[in-house]
Specification:
The chain is of the alpha+beta class. Helices cover 46% and strands 16% of the residues. The protein is built from 7 helices and 5 strands. Strands 1, 2, 3, 4 and 5 form a 5-stranded antiparallel beta sheet that branches.
């Protein structure tokens, strides 16, 4: 596809209906993730973002963790719809990208720059958000549909245990992706006049 940057941003949408097919190789998916982690900026060049790419059985294992976790806390009658949503949307995809922020890096910056210590957690989240948008946009440009999910902190401990991840990696978001299997639907935009102010 290879659109311009503005075209790619414009065409990025939330897809809940995805399949387990991929328009590109696993190696090319890895390249997308590696490119984003390498080139997306971060406050104080902290490079605090950590990313885990789950494909195949690992992708399915993640959504099994989500279902097992929710089953313990969601009423049985409500869990039926929850499980159906996960099975036919997120788990039905080709893979999932997990976004983390390394709290060791954040704490190190707080210690090194005490005048800004209250700001670093927020700046860390902004860094993660930029990585999420970059990966999402590049995945869509490659022919995938994706969405952004937040089952953290419910699944954090089990995710770290399953993939032997450091305790300092704080899970921020999950991005299931796959070939679009349905229309994302029209997107409505709020008036720019209420969102943007220009002064000359």
């Amino acid at each position: 596809m290879k659109r311009t940057f503005t075209e790619a941003l414009k065409n990025r949408r939330t897809y809940y209906s995805i399949s387990n097919q991929s328009p590109i190789s696993d190696g090319e998916i890895e390249q997308i993730v590696n490119f984003a982690v390498t080139h997306v900026p971060s406050s104080f060049n902290s490079q605090s973002t950590r990313v885990v790419l789950l494909l195949g059985d690992s992708h399915q294992k993640l959504w099994g963790i989500v279902k097992d976790t929710l089953k313990k806390i969601v009423p049985a009658e409500a869990f039926v719809k929850t499980e159906e949503k996960i099975n036919h949307s997120f788990a039905a995809g080709y893979g999932t990208v997990l976004f983390f922020e390394d709290q060791t890096v954040v704490k190190g910056l707080q210690d090194a720059f005490p005048s800004y210590q209250e700001n670093f957690p927020g700046w860390s989240l902004q860094t993660s958000a930029m990585h999420q948008l970059a990966v999402w946009t590049m995945l869509e440009d490659a022919g995938f549909g994706a969405s952004l999910q937040h089952y953290n902190p419910l699944i954090d401990a089990e995710v770290r245990r399953t993939w032997n991840l450091p305790e300092t990696w704080n899970l921020i978001a999950q991005m299931p992706f796959g070939t679009p299997a349905g229309d994302p639907g029209a997107k409505e935009f709020q008036p720019l006049e209420s969102r943007v102010k220009i002064f000359k």
